[in-house]
Amino acid sequence: MESLSMEVLLMVLCYALQPQGNDLRAPIAPYATVNRRWQAVIEECTFGSIRIYTATRLKEFQRLFGKLPKNSHRKFCIQKIDLLVELEPYDKKANAHYETDEENQRNNKIFRTAISSLFEVLASWPDNVELELIIEAQSPSDDLACKDPEVFLQRIQAARSRGGDVLGDRYNRRYLKFFEESGHTPSIHAVTTLQIKGTSGRRLIEPASCALIASKLPRLFHLDLNLVDECKRDEGLRKQLRDDFAIALRRVPPNIQGLCLKFAYNPPRDHNYPPPILAEGETDLLSTHLREVSRNLSYLNIESTVIGPELFWPLNSQDKSSGLPSWPHLTSFVVGYAPVTPFGQWLFERPSESLEDDVEANEGANGVDEREWQPGFPWTAPEDRKINNFRTNTIMRFANNLYMSAGQAALQMPKLESMTLATAGSHNPRQVFKYTVANGVAKLTWSHVDFIGLFLLKYQVGWAGLRRVIEWFQPDEQVLELWKKVAFQHTGGELQIYFVDSKNTELGNLL
What we know:
Layout (H helix, E strand, L loop, with lengths): L5 H11 L19 H11 L2 E4 L2 H11 L7 H5 L2 E7 L14 H22 L8 E8 L10 H11 L31 E7 L9 H9 L6 E7 L6 H14 L9 E7 L20 H10 L4 E7 L11 H4 L11 E6 L10 E2 L9 H6 L28 E2 L1 H15 L7 E6 L7 E8 L2 E8 L3 H4 L2 H12 L7 H15 L3 E6 L11
Parallel strand pairs: 1-2, 2-3, 3-4, 4-5, 5-6, 6-7, 7-8, 8-11, 13-14
Antiparallel strand pairs: 9-10, 11-12, 12-13
Helix pairs in contact: 1-2, 3-5, 7-8, 8-9, 12-15
């Protein structure tokens, strides 16, 4: 194999000797001792993607890479680092209790120290490296970290009895925070892609801390945040976290090209309950600051997030006084929004005015549930204790405001190729608005999954009859005129408008 070129040797070794996982010590590592030529090829395989999932692994990473010269070839081998911060363990007795302030403070210190230690190593990386960094956290004692199926089942069973196990509810109000000590956290030029997982089976990470971490990465091009915007035990805490996040977004590096944000909120499963009020005054702080961040982006993807029309366009004179926004580089704008407003309003209503809300359920919203006072019992919010989905009809004044705001913004997006606005949530109606520009043609489609059955009526009542059935689904003429203007600006031609069903089958232009 000495006669093989470096490229061919790399292909042979990587396919024939695949490592098991992304450990620092993969099975092919011993082959690096054959000679220096093999060493370079082997290390390119083993160091391409590194997963640091224990404190011991982090120390090993520091030992292997902490004292290497700046231009060491090993640093150029690494393309991705997945840092799973290992928090402190806890005993079986603690499974039945919520995390204390002292435990949270110790975990915060572990979280900050782990990230700072990694950054100290990465600070010596050359500026021409493009590194992807993933950050998440978990305690080895968390239920979703359990690797023994029998033990996990026992914990599930214990959770069904009072005081047995609180599972993930143990830390549902305990957010991990990244903070600086005397401002000594170094800037990292090697990281160009950052992903932070602060939900989905991992520990919750404070949203503002994510923006602070991103601010330490001046060459950051892509930012992907998977976070939680929900705390039904303490809505005041939720609002504070949300507002702090909005303000901290100012610290995101200005050269960022793409932002993917899942700021997940699950609206009440019982539609009798009103959503919480998150915004004060005329505008939503988070929507406004996301709009400002988006102005330099090439793409923006927002998922399962509570937003307002000010995400697209300033709504009051104070916002407009600083100049109207523009998006010179934006090509893709995707928004999956929760079916509620930041001001505590539903975006949907009952299909018939003759049906009234369940008064008894509404009265229960302000009552005291005795389970809330059981410190060792997994708590369920009153609005989530039964599924009662009756809100299926779009409140068109809200939808039209959103479409008008989006249209005004689209006029300032010369490179726009696709804009999608869709309601999110498995227990809620899903309305999808999609504008696309391709091959010189602008197309606008609306769909609503709750109309699948009604669309079948077209064979009985025809298009005219069907149009009467879905009359409320049609947007205002002002909205259509604005989007026709958007289409003409982008293509110089007319706008094609369609309704589609859930299988993306075009049902014809109903306008």
